[in-house]
Amino acid sequence: MSIVSKDFEIQENLIVLIEDLQNNIYDLRDRIADYTHLYNKTRHTAVECEVQNEEIADIIGKKHHSLYHKMKSLNYLLEIINDYRDCNGIFQDQHDMIIQVQEIMFDYAEKELYEEAATIKKWYDLLYVAIYIQ
Questions:
Q1: H helix runs in the chain, sequence order
Q2: What is the distance between the alpha carbons of residues 55 and 100, in angstroms, rounded to a whole number?
Q3: How far apart are CA 88 and CA 79, in angstroms?
Q4: pLDDT of amino acid 15
Q5: What per-residue confidence (pLDDT) applies to 49?
Q6: What's the pTM value of the predicted model, to 2 decimals?
Q7: For residues 42 and 86, what is the distance between their CA atoms, to the nearest angstrom?
């Protein structure tokens, strides 16, 4: 029977969480590129459906804008979390890390950037579970 230390389990959880966060960012980057292409294509289509194309382009533009800000928030979160990694890849001061992520979430909410706050909240919850395992 193998006994794994709680600290080792926390480190594993954080590594998996970071990988998921990075994959989420890569996925958003791809989706943003797709929306950019679709937006440009819609803007440059034939003039015959101009009003309908404008409406579609506006919807695509709003979705692109939303995804961009979500990706920007996640990149910021990843940067903050990685700041707590030492040169060996070990996460240090996990309690301070989760407090800082919580402060970022509250800052977004205070600035009425609710979508960004909700994005950070999702990852805050996952981070909390990864650090404060039962």
A1: 6-43, 50-83, 94-110, 114-131
A2: 40
A3: 17
A4: 95
A5: 65
A6: 0.86
A7: 47
Residue 60 tokens, joined: 């695509």
**What is the C-alpha radius of gyration for the chain, rounded to an integer number of angstroms?**
19
d(CA 115, CA 55): 23
Closest CA to 60 of 42, 84, 45: 42
User: pLDDT tens per residue, the chain (134 residues)?
Assistant: 456 688 899 999 999 999 999 999 999 999 999 989 988 888 777 555 676 777 888 888 899 999 999 999 999 999 999 999 999 989 999 999 999 999 999 999 999 999 999 999 999 999 999 999 86
State the residue for tokens 């009003």. Answer: 51
Q: Helix, strand or coil for residue 1? A: coil
Let me know if 51 is exposed, middle or buried by CB neighbors in 10 A (0-12, 13-18, 19+): exposed
φ, ψ of residue 85 to 5 degrees: the values are: -100, 135
Residue labelled with tokens 């060996």: 88
Residue 28 CB contacts under 8 Å (≥ 6 apart), including other chains = 67, 70, 71, 74
